Amino acid sequence: MKKLFFLLLISVLIFSIYKITNRKSNLFFSIGNTNGDFYYNKEDMHISEVKMSIEQNEEIHEKKIQQLLVKSSRIQIDCNSFFRLTSYDRILTQMNDLEELIVLIRKYCKEKIEIILLQEQSELADYSNKKISILCQKYDIIIKR
Questions:
Q1: For residue range 38-95, what is the model confidence (pLDDT) as tens digits?
Q2: Coil, helix or strand for 17?
Q3: How deeply is 75 buried, as exposed, middle or buried, from its count of CB atoms within 10 A (0-12, 13-18, 19+)?
Q4: Closest CA to 39 of 16, 17, 61
Q5: How far apart are alpha carbons 107 and 59 in whole angstroms?
Q6: Residue 70 in contact with residue 63, Cβ under 8 Å?
Q7: What is the DSSP annotation of 111-124?
Q8: Phi/psi of residue 82, each to 5°?
Q9: Which residues contact 35 (CB under 8 A, 6 or more apart)?
């Protein structure tokens, strides 16, 4: 009887330690809007600025951006805040920058990434959204409309 009680006590202790140490926070990090628990949003922002901030490990809300990327369970990127629709050449340049940004974010985060497509209704916006959708399929990213 004592052995059974001892085994039960050890099992409960191991289970409680496992639950305490394996607790994962649901941190939501947003780039381009203020929806998340932590967000990176600047006026007149460019994709290259975001990449540079991640590479230089800037502080956001008293936390390092790379640490936020590692600990976030969900990351949202709003393309409306940094995409400029002026010409097809500009869009292709921004798509290359966006791909580099996604690769950089994937370096730190293996969790779910969402991209909000452009809401503008124009031929350039439709073209950009198609290119972004192809990029999302390539890197296993969720598209939010």
A1: 888 888 888 889 999 999 999 988 889 999 898 888 999 999 888 888 899 999 999 9
A2: helix
A3: buried
A4: 61
A5: 18
A6: no
A7: SEEEEEPP---SHH
A8: -130, 5
A9: 28, 76
- Find the radius of gyration of the CA atoms of the chain: 21
The answer to whether the predicted template modeling score (pTM) of the entire model surpasses 0.85 is: no
Q: Please, what sign has the CA dihedral across residues 92, 96, 139, 22?
A: negative
Residues 30 and 137: their CA atoms lie apart, in Å, by 20
The dihedral through the CA atoms of 42, 100, 69, 125 has a sign that is: positive
Token output for 26? 């649901």
Rounded CA separation 67/80 (Å): 25
